[in-house]
């Protein structure tokens, strides 16, 4: 009996199975018979959408299914209305992956192109690709509603990218070009083959002018990709960049290895990988005076995408030769915009750091030789909505550092007479000796106390206490610039100004500030030049007016006096124009007396010096000598026929007045710190 039921059950299973297969077969046959109709409808829909949304004409001579999931197009053209042809392909085929298609996802499985190309053309202000930047008003709200944070956005973008990356590809005679009114560039790919994700291809620039080899592997399912780009010849520049932007980039090899995209939890996505290069060369006149050479480096780690922030993954590391660094960085956008940055190196060999610096980027530091270990710690955090509450702590442990030899900038030369080149922007305007050989040179003890004190308090009140950098000034500078949303205030100390003027005054590049910091650090850490000597040089070389350099020329130019004869008021005036030396004469009335708005500077700094006890042994006139400052007659402006004092104060000097007001607030903060330190010492 049991055998009977068993046979009957197997028979029913067989009947059901055959029936299901028959139904699937019939459905498949029906679908196959109607798929051309579906394709026709899809083509009409695509053509209408491109025409309606982007004013693009999309035409194909014929199209048909080739195999189960492949569609082939013949003589495909993409032409924006009244523009040059954007894309043309003699044969273009595309297939989709079967398994994702069963659940409704469309993913590219293979692409084939024969005798095709894409041409970007710009004539005057019109281009055949401007539709790419056209804002889609109807989609903006939908995209906004879909986005749930950085993690969601990163996940969607990665899926969209790998959905269009094929497993297999065969490109034959493919061209990519760009042309405008000034230049033309052409890239040719003779053949590019991808087989199960592995690919290799040659890319030719302007008919064998240059050649790069592309190779690697893509695993779309696992969302992994490795790409290597090698230059067949050395020093071959990437196309387009120099002609369009004045930027030249060449390399021997670039490696991009996307190793993993992991959804840690609902609102946290991590992307890990490696980027490396060999013999990378970069030139732009705003970056450096010469080509920057980066022999080899590797960046390993990843990025975290959360709902409201983007951050470097912990232990993400940059390695250059024997030097490595693992910075921590985080950008938060909600509930408020905040930037966090931290660097904690631990002890490392100082020479490894200098050996890792790119050649050509910091020319005055190249060739520096040091011994010993150092460590650097930086903690920075700022809420852009509350910049005054920022955190900034920068510390370096360099007690073990020993300077063996200088590089391009020989700081030791400051200890003896040297020739100073004075520049107005990049134009050399004067050259003179800084030393006893020059009759205008004044030793520090020949310069009156009141001038040294006023200049120090105006420019760098902690000069004799810091190691070249003033942390409080950096904090105030950052907070001020963030609030003003532009560069409004620097944080240069006397040491930094001196290094810039003596060694870097011709450089107008982005790297200059970092080079300035390196030189000041080495100068101060080595102790090879005393603070007094630095201050002495500073007072003898700084600009105090148009073609007026050094305290001797300044005292003679404004007051027909020698430096030794300057009083408190004249010293306060001279200290007031250091940030704006060419405006010095405009501070005076036609009578030779100072204009009223200058008195703010006298009251601010006079009060600071008095509270610090720095005027105890000085005769202090009314308003700190403001009324005793008299400009020499030859420089006085002509008396106006009708004098409008309101315009004089609020019009001509409104900008300077505002700057002085901001400066007064800054100095009050520094004054509080100075007074606090003085009370602690007492």
Describe this protein's structure.
The chain is an alpha+beta fold and 682 residues long. Helices cover 33% and strands 32% of the residues. The chain contains 16 helices and 28 strands. The protein has a 22-stranded mixed sheet that branches. Strands 21-24 form a two-stranded antiparallel ribbon. Helix 9 crosses helix 10 and helix 9 (494-503) packs across helix 11.
Keywords:
alpha+beta, 682 residues, elongated
Largest sheet, strands/sense/barrel: 22 strands, mixed
Q: What is the number of beta strands?
A: 28
Strand content: 25-35%
Number of helices: 16
Shape designation:
elongated
Structural class: alpha+beta
Please give the share of residues in helix: 25-40%
**Distance linking N and C termini:** 111 Å
Poorly predicted runs are: 15-32, 137-146, 643-652
Average pLDDT, rounded to a whole number, is 85
What Rg, in angstroms, do the CA atoms define?
35 Å
Concise synopsis of the structure shown:
The protein has 682 residues and is an alpha+beta fold.
Task: Give the SSE layout.
Layout: H1 2-54, E1 56-65, E2 70-80, E3 87-96, H2 98-102, E4 108-123, E5 126-127, H3 137-146, H4 150-164, E6 168-179, E7 184-195, E8 198-205, E9 210-219, E10 224-231, H5 241-245, E11 248-250, E12 253-265, E13 268-283, E14 292-306, E15 309-312, E16 317-320, E17 323-325, E18 328-332, E19 338-344, E20 348-349, H6 350-356, E21 369-371, E22 373-383, E23 391-397, E24 402-405, E25 418-424, E26 427-434, H7 449-459, H8 471-484, H9 494-503, H10 512-526, H11 531-541, E27 543-545, E28 548-549, H12 551-559, H13 568-576, H14 599-611, H15 645-652, H16 654-681
Parallel strand pairs: 4-6
Antiparallel strand pairs: 1-2, 2-3, 3-4, 4-5, 6-7, 7-8, 8-9, 9-10, 10-12, 11-13, 12-13, 13-14, 14-15, 14-16, 15-18, 16-17, 18-19, 19-22, 20-22, 21-24, 22-23, 25-26, 27-28
Helix pairs in contact: 7-13, 7-14, 9-10, 9-11, 13-14, 14-16
């Amino acid at each position: 009996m049991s055998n009977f039921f068993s046979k009957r059950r197997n028979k029913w299973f067989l009947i059901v199975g055959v029936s299901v297969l028959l139904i699937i077969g019939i459905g498949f046959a029906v679908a196959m018979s109607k798929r051309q109709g579906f394709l026709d409808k899809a083509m009409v829909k695509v053509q209408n959408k491109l025409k309606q949304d982007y004013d693009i004409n999309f035409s194909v001579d014929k199209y048909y299914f080739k195999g189960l999931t492949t569609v082939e197009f013949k003589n495909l053209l993409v032409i924006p209305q009244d523009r040059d042809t954007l894309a043309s392909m003699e044969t273009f085929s595309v297939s989709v992956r079967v398994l994702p298609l069963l659940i409704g996802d469309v993913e590219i499985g293979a692409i084939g192109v024969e005798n095709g190309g894409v041409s970007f053309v710009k004539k005057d202000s019109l281009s055949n690709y401007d539709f790419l930047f056209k804002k889609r008003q109807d989609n903006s709200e939908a995209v906004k509603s879909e986005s749930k944070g950085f993690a969601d956005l990163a996940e969607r973008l990665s899926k969209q990218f790998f959905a269009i990356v094929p497993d297999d590809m065969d490109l034959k005679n493919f061209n990519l070009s760009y042309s405008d009114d000034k230049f033309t560039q052409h890239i040719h790919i003779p053949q590019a083959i991808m087989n199960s994700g592995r690919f290799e291809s040659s890319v030719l620039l302007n008919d064998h002018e240059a050649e790069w080899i592309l190779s690697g592997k893509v695993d779309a399912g696992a969302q992994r990709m490795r790409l290597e780009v090698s230059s067949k010849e050395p020093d071959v520049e990437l196309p387009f960049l120099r002609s369009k932007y004045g930027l030249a980039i060449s390399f021997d090899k670039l490696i991009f290895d996307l190793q993993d995209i992991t959804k840690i939890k609902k609102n946290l996505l991590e992307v890990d990988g490696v980027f490396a290069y060999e013999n990378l060369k970069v030139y732009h006149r705003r970056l450096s005076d010469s080509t920057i050479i980066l022999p080899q480096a590797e960046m390993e780690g990843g990025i975290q995408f959360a709902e409201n922030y983007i951050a470097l993954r912990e232990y993400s590391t940059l390695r250059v030769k024997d030097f490595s660094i693992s910075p921590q960085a985080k950008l938060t956008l909600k509930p408020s915009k905040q930037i966090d940055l931290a660097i904690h190196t631990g002890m490392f060999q100082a020479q490894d750091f200098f050996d890792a610096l790119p050649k050509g980027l910091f020319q005055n530091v190249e060739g520096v030789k040091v011994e010993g270990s150092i460590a650097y710690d930086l903690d920075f955090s700022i809420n852009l909505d509350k910049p005054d509450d920022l955190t900034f702590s920068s510390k370096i442990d360099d007690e073990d550092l020993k300077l063996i030899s200088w590089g391009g900038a020989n700081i030791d030369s400051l200890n003896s007479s040297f020739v100073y080149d004075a520049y107005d922007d990049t134009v050399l305007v004067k050259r003179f000796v800084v030393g006893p050989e020059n009759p205008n040179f004044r030793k520090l003890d020949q310069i009156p106390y009141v001038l040294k004190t006023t200049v120090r308090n105006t420019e760098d009140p902690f000069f004799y206490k810091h190691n070249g950098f003033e942390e409080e000034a950096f904090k105030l500078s950052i907070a001020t610039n963030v609030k003003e949303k532009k560069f409004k205030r620097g944080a240069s100390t006397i040491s930094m100004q001196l290094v810039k003027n003596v060694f870097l005054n011709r450089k107008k590049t982005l790297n200059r500030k970092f080079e300035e910091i390196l030189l000041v650090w080495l100068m101060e850490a080595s102790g090879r030049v005393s603070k007094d000597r630095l201050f002495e040089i500073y007072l003898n070389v700084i600009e105090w007016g148009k073609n007026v350099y050094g305290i001797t020329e300044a005292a003679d130019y404004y007051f027909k006096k020698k430096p030794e004869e300057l009083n408190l008021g004249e010293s306060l005036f001279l200290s007031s124009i250091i940030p704006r030396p060419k405006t010095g004469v405009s501070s005076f009335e036609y009578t030779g007396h100072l204009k009223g708005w200058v008195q703010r500077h006298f009251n601010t700094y006079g009060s600071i010096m008095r509270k610090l006890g720095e005027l105890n042994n000085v005769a202090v006139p009314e308003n700190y000598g403001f009324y005793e400052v008299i400009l020499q007659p030859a420089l006085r402006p002509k008396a106006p026929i009708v004098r409008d004092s309101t315009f004089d104060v609020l019009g001509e000097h409104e900008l300077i007045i505002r700057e002085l007001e901001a400066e007064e607030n800054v100095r009050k903060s520094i004054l509080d710190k100075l007074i606090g330190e003085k009370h602690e010492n007492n």
